Amino acid sequence: MRISGIQLAYDDHETLEDRVVRAADLVRTQHSSDLIVLPELWPSSGFGYRNWGAAAQTLDGPIVTAMRAAARDTGTHLHMGSLIEGTPEALERLASVDHDVKRLPELPDGERGLWNTSVLIDPAGDIVAVYRKIHRFGFGNGEPKLLEAGSDIVTAPIEVDGRTVTVGLATCYDLRFPEQFRALLDAGTEVFVVPAAWPAPRVDHWSLLARARAAEDFCAMVAVNTAGFHAKTPMGGHSVILDASANVLAEAGADESIITADIDIEAIHSRRTSFPALDDRRL
């Protein structure tokens, strides 16, 4: 299974429209891949909270529509990273405050109508999975204050050369919660897919946690981070593709780049058989 991770870099000056076009063009360069992955919240910026309202869209809005077209043109599965998803009612509220999400009245969970949402698209351009981020980063501010929490463990099948490969979806801060990845494993996951907007000061933890989740769950890992500098925050880069033994198959540096690697799906199951730690679980 050939996978490409697009470590997109951006700053605070690029318009949403230009960034969507640029990301779609980068996707279209990866015709040889079975799965292409973009980072978390690249349309709105991960830490630019004040941009979230202007970039929020429904899943039939221009951002997802453009990514569906790119997947269809490329003829491959595309994990388009994540965007701020909003219900029509939430978007109407945002319009009333000039799309400044921080000026919205504080609403309790369940009434905000905004999520950090990942979308998986098939080669026909159809949406095949939607994952709303379960663990919101911000310690009471940012995501916890502005967005809803997702609740569903999400896996999806991808057809590769006549074989079905199960991918498990998570996002950024989720990496710090191993119980979510065990639940994905128990749901049949073979390959974890984790888009992120992980900042440079903690990039060592990004690399450590990605390897830990792959090693402890005997799953391959595709972890695609953002590069660049936005909202006064340097981003960490260092996207990585790991096998089920947590060996590095491809890794990016700090700048915008595309990494590609072939994952041996049979080797995932061979690893689980030859080192049967998963069978020894007791808790």
Characterise this structure.
The chain is built from eight helices and 15 strands. It has one domain (2-278): Carbon-nitrogen hydrolase (Nitrilase/N-carbamoyl-D-aminoacid amidohydrolase, 4-Layer Sandwich). 28% of the residues lie in helices and 28% in strands. The strands form three sheets. The chain has a six-stranded mixed β-sheet. With 283 residues, the protein is of the alpha/beta class. It has helices at 16-27, 49-55, 62-74, 88-96, 143-146, 178-186, 203-217, 265-274, and strands spanning 2-7, 9-10, 35-37, 77-86, 114-121, 127-132, 154-160, 163-169, 191-195, 220-224, 227-230, 233-234, 240-242, 248-251, 257-262. It starts with a strand and ends in a 9-residue tail after the last helix. This is Carbon-nitrogen hydrolase.
